[in-house]
Amino acid sequence: MPDPVARWRLLAESGPLFPHVAGVVEWTAWQRAASLLESRLPDEPRRDRRIHQLYVPTLVWLTSQRALAPSRPIVAGLCAPQGAGKSTLARELTVLLGDAGLRVAMVSIDDFYLPREAQLAVAREHPGNRVLEHRGAPGTHDVALGAATLEALRALQPGQTLRIPRYDKSAHGGRGDRLPQTEWTPILGPVDVVLLEGWCFAFRPVPNAALTERALAPVNAALPEYERWRHQLDCLASWRANALEQIVGWRVDAEERSRAEGRPGLDRAATLDYIRRFLPVYATFQHTVTEEPPSRDRQISVVLDADRLPIASSSPLQG
User: Fold this and answer.
1) Is omega for the bond preceding 190 within 30 degrees of 0, making it cis?
2) What is the pLDDT of residues 24-71, one digit of tens each?
3) In whole angstroms, what separates CA 98 from the centre of its chain?
4) What phi and psi values does residue 111 have, to the nearest 5 degrees?
5) Looking at residue 194, what DSSP letter applies?
6) Are 242 and 305 in contact (CB under 8 A)?
7) What residue numbers bound the domain in which 207 lies?
8) I want to staple 60 with a disulfide (CB 3.0 to 4.6 A). Which of 21, 78, 91, 119 is the partner?
9) Residue 59 lies in a domain
10) C-alpha triplet 250, 253, 257: angle, nearest 5°
11) Which helix (H) or strand (E) holds 99?
12) Residues 79, 242: contact at Cβ < 8 Å?
């Protein structure tokens, strides 16, 4: 009978992320994290690959980044396409890091979307611009609120509590709205790791000549403000789809799961209309994520296939 430990070690070592963590792997800790994930993730045919080639390597890499600054909180970014599974990974990393004794605050850029009325005002300011008609793209976030929240989490002292914003995507028929402050999430200090996840916060502006659509001009103009988030990152893990069309399927799957769980959301037609608005944003800006990392040795980039599994990886050191 094959040795199960030998099998999953072989699986781990054959993954594209393993070279980034090979020098810091502790196999006992790896097996503990994998066992915890097996108890939490749905049993599906690709679960083992997801655990040993994506989730646990990201955990090991993130733990090694924390070890570089053990005396203060770090802010770790996870920038990945909509529907790619970044929120699930961030949730599981929060559990795994907690199991290792670290205090984690998980923050989504979705919770910094403009309130409904402000978003409608953005749409009115850009009539006919499909990219800015609804929440999603750069230019539809309260960047100042996000920056202040990250700074406050870094400074949170023992016994202090900070409430971080929450956004209800199901409000207004799936168009969303910010929840009142009484419903924001309380975080008790101090924290060791702040996980910031989202799809576009690490994008950078491009020369105007590189814009393929007029609708992208206000997005490009909004991106410099997002440096207020990016400059706070100690490290960044970025994912991208092997093909842009994969993102459409991922987002449709995510909305269908939400509705199956009884939560209001967009129907299939509205979801397709919504996500296709942002494909030009990915096509124009996603390459900028790896251009200027927080530090040359503190960023990894992963390419995902249609099943959201890693098929390639690089760091700025490798190109």
Assistant:
1) yes
2) 999 999 999 999 999 999 999 999 999 999 999 999 999 999 999 999
3) 19
4) -75, -5
5) E
6) yes
7) 72-314
8) 21
9) no
10) 140
11) helix 86-99
12) no
Q: Do the strands 299-304 and 310-314 form a parallel or antiparallel pair, or are they unpaired? A: antiparallel
Query: What tens digit of pLDDT does each residue of 215-245 get?
Result: 999 999 999 999 999 999 999 999 999 999 9
Name residue 303's beta-bridge partners: 240, 312
CATH number of the domain at 267, please: 3.40.50.300
Number of structural domains (the chain) is 1
Does some domain include residue 221?
yes
Cα–Cα distances (Å) from 137 to 166, 191, 228, 274, in that order, read: 18, 29, 16, 11
Asked if residues 106 and 192 have their Cβ atoms less than 8 Å apart, the reply is no
Strand partners, 179: none
CB 278 within 8 A of CB 129: no
Residue 134 near residue 123 (C-beta atoms within 8 A)? yes
Q: Is 138 helix (H, G, I), strand (E, B) or coil?
A: coil
Distance between CA atoms of 228 and 147, rounded to whole angstroms?
A: 6
Only one residue has tokens 């799961």, namely 257
Name the residue type at position 155: A
Domain-embedded: residue 247: yes
b/e string for 276-308 if b means 16 or more Cβ within 10 A? ebbebbbebbbeebbeebbeeebbbbbbbeeeb
Q: What are the DSSP E strand ranges found in the chain?
A: 74-79, 104-108, 161-164, 167-168, 177-178, 185-188, 193-198, 235-241, 299-304, 310-314
